[in-house]
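Batch manifest, entry 17 of 40.
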Amino acid sequence: QVQLVESGGGLLQAGATLRLSCVASGRPAITLALGWFRQAPGKEREFLAVSSRDGESTLYGDGPVKDRLVVNRDNINNRVYLWLNTVKPEDTAVYYCAADAQRPYGSGSDAHYDYWGQGTQVTVSS
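Output type: structure tokens
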């Protein structure tokens, strides 16, 4: 069983940089594609990005954050990171880390993810 625990987030001022971290346990992170999603109130869950197992490839979603988003990973420490710069109030959401154990490069579909973190709330004030 894989456990994912996100950290970071909280309350940010517009224009700040968001940094989130997710640590995976239960199996080596290199056996998992690790992705990030978010869900704002009243909206569907949105795919942000996924890092391939070896960390050499990152697939980014086509959403409004694509140009402000960086995702990478550290397989030695079983972590995946998300940086979102110049945050805006519309970035307010619960951010989730997810793991795909089947596909080396991951997927943009939340249906393909086997494990999910509990989520971390991010609130951006104007």
